[in-house]
Amino acid sequence: MLIHPWDETTSAEWREVLSRVDFGQLVTAGHVDGYPVVVPTHFLYDGADRVLLHLARPNPVWRALEADPHVVLSLSTDYVYVEAEWNADDGQDPTLGVPTSYYTAVQLLCTAEIVDDPAAKAEILAAQLAHFEPADSTRITPSVEVESDRRQLPGIRGIRLQVQAVRGKMKYGGNKTPAQRGRIAERLLERSGPMDAAARQHLSTRTPPEAG
């Protein structure tokens, strides 16, 4: 992922993203049939350096992880299309503007540990359920002591990801002038698309390094 100095996130920024986004794509370094395996999945980030998740046993990801445990957990959010006319530089004919995309992307570079012990898998499930289930849910304590859980646990394998490094990018016109960013923010407000409000917030509040 190309990250310009004006797009690079701070630690606080990418951690904030991970506090609200818990679905991404697990991308393997190991190959199956000549290609990486890409698995869309929910995950649980512990706020420090570990991620927990589980996947079905028939998933082809296991062959890839056994070949090479290195993975990237990739996620993106707050993405919008910036129309060509909006993105014209100061003084440029708007009809000659070049369109672009604004987005937030975080990539966790990790090593994966496969978890097959039934009790350890139940612990991963319990942690995920505590995070994803509503507060009044009764389904938060899977256990090898419960017959139905014990029968179903062999159908999944757990994964612990140890985070080695993080790449974070928030591409929101950091190389544009304040006037240009203001004009684009106004257009996003007018369009009011699904993620335009979030992108407009980033566009309006992020301060490019050269202006800080």
CATH architecture classification: Roll
Spatial sequence of strands, sheet with the most strands: 2-1-5-6-7-4-3
CATH class: Mainly Beta
Q: Structural class per helix/strand content?
A: alpha+beta
Number of domain units = 1
Low-confidence stretches: none
Broad shape: elongated
Strand tally is: 7
- Please give the count of helices: 6
Mean pLDDT: 93
The helix fraction, in percent, is: 25-40%
At the fourth level of CATH, the homologous superfamily is: Electron Transport, Fmn-binding Protein, Chain A
Radius of gyration, Cα only, in angstroms? 21 Å
The CATH topology: Pnp Oxidase, Chain A
Distance between the termini: 24 Å
Portion in beta strands: 25-35%
Major sheet summary line = 7 strands, antiparallel
Task: Output the helix-strand order.
Answer: HEEEEHEEHHEHH
Could you explain the architecture of this structure?
29% of the residues lie in helices and 34% in strands. It is built from six helices and seven strands. It has helices at residues 11-20, 61-67, 118-132, 147-152, 178-191, 196-205, and strands at 23-32, 35-42, 44-45, 50-56, 70-82, 100-115, 156-171. Strand 1 (23-32) and strand 2 (35-42) form a beta hairpin. Helix 5 packs antiparallel against helix 6 (196-205).
